[in-house]
Amino acid sequence: MAPPSSVASNERPIQLSVDPDTLLWQELEDEHFIFNPASGHTHVFNEPGARLLQALGESPRTRAQLLEVLQDPETPEDPQLLQAHLDWMLRQLDELGLIEPVP
């Protein structure tokens, strides 16, 4: 696996690094189990992480668009806290080899 590409600090749009149609999803209560046949690994995501992955599977997104995906209109979060959460999640997805900047 290639080293992480610092997606969290990059301003280019972000895309999945795998074909989203190959990922196998199973939801159990509040957790999403996602099997990546390309790597042979199963990953466990909470609801916000799964929403990010689903959004990136639809199309590449900018950081601003991903913040919108995370924002829950019923329970608004502090913008700085939401930004920190997004940065953390992007680093995790990058380390798993699931995302990359759009070339």
In short:
The protein is built from three helices and five strands. With 103 residues, the chain is α+β, with helices and mostly antiparallel strands. The protein has one domain: Outer Surface Protein A, domain 3 (Alpha-Beta Complex).
Give your account of this protein's structure.
The model has no long low-confidence stretch (mean pLDDT 88). The protein has a single domain, classed as Outer Surface Protein A, domain 3 (Alpha-Beta Complex), CATH 3.90.930. The protein starts with 13 loop residues before the first strand and ends with a strand. A hairpin with a 4-residue loop joins strand 3 and strand 4. Strands 2-3-4 form a 3-stranded antiparallel sheet. The longest helix is centred in the last third of the chain and has 17 residues. By secondary structure, it is α+β, with helices and mostly antiparallel strands. The chain contains 3 helices and 5 strands.
